[in-house]
């Protein structure tokens, strides 16, 4: 399939590009600075653009079969790249008749709030990352209202190494005592699987060890 990924040079995005290529897909990497993606593959195409620029997104998305969003804002706590970039992607998909959307959000959004511990509820999402969290929640609302064939993926906090405990897929809202960790590579593999796996179509799915 022809897949375009927004946020392709991010800490998860570049791993997702690798996994998508490994799975045999033709991949378009969309990012502001595509040279940061140090990959070479005949099925990899680079498109430089800004997800906040609707024209950039509209032009890049045409002709693809599926879209993956791994947009992030680095160290910024005030960026609206997740919600506004996602809105631009949704509008472009609707304009070009593209249906399949996989969007990375965060564990803790909406009904999965109950999975978090005190530290994440009160310190991280309750204070330090409150604007980021609100942007994730708006992002999810936009995806759910899009009319597309969507899957929202809610990962716990990222690690570079393997998780200490096995990753729970589709974390139930009743789950407590989680490590609240997932490796970036495990998340990238899960995102890639969603391209052809309809199990979580029209659902938000939590991932955490």
Description:
The two termini are 30 Å apart. The strands form 2 sheets. An 8-stranded mixed β-sheet has the order 3-2-1-4-5-6-10-8, sandwiched between helices. It has 209 residues and is of the alpha/beta class. The protein has a single domain, classed as 3-Layer(aba) Sandwich (Rossmann fold), CATH 3.40.50. The chain is built from 6 helices and 10 strands. Helix 4 crosses helix 5 (130-144).
Attribute tags:
209 residues, alpha/beta, Rossmann fold, eight-stranded mixed beta sheet, two-stranded parallel sheet, 22% strand, globular
Query: Could you tell me the number of beta strands?
Result: 10
Task: Tell me the CATH superfamily.
Answer: NAD(P)-binding Rossmann-like Domain
Computed over alpha carbons, the radius of gyration is 16 Å
State the secondary-structure class. alpha/beta
Summarize the structure.
The protein has 209 residues and is of the alpha/beta class. The protein has 6 helices and 10 strands; from the N terminus they run βαββαβαβααββββαβ. Helices cover 33% and strands 22% of the residues.
List the helices and strands and how they pair.
Blueprint: E1 2-6, H1 13-22, E2 26-31, E3 44-48, H2 54-61, E4 66-69, H3 81-96, E5 100-104, H4 118-128, H5 130-144, E6 149-155, E7 157-159, E8 168-169, E9 181-183, H6 184-193, E10 203-208
Parallel strand pairs: 1-2, 1-4, 2-3, 4-5, 5-6, 6-10, 7-9
Antiparallel strand pairs: 8-10
């Amino acid at each position: 399939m022809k897949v375009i990924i927004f946020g392709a040079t991010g800490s998860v995005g570049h791993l997702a590009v690798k996994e998508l290529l490994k799975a045999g897909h033709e991949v378009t990497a969309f990012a502001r600075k595509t040279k940061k993606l140090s990959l070479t593959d005949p099925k990899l195409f680079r498109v430089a653009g800004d997800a906040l620029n609707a024209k950039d997104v509209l032009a890049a998305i045409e002709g693809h079969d599926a879209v993956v969003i791994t947009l992030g804002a680095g160290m910024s706590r005030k960026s609206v790249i997740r919600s506004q970039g996602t809105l631009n992607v949704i509008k472009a998909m609707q304009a070009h008749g593209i249906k399949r959307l996989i969007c990375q959000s965060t564990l803790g959004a909406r009904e999965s709030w109950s999975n978090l511990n005190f530290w994440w509820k009160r310190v991280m999402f309750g204070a330090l990352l409150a604007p980021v969290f609100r942007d994730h929640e708006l992002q999810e609302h936009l995806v759910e209202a899009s009319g597309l064939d969507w899957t929202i993926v809610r990962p716990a906090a990222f690690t570079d190494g393997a998780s200490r405990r096995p990753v729970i897929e589709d974390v139930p809202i009743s789950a407590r005592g989680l490590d609240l960790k997932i490796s970036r590579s495990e998340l990238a593999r899960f995102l890639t699987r969603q391209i052809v796996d309809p199990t979580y179509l029209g659902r938000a799915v939590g991932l955490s060890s």
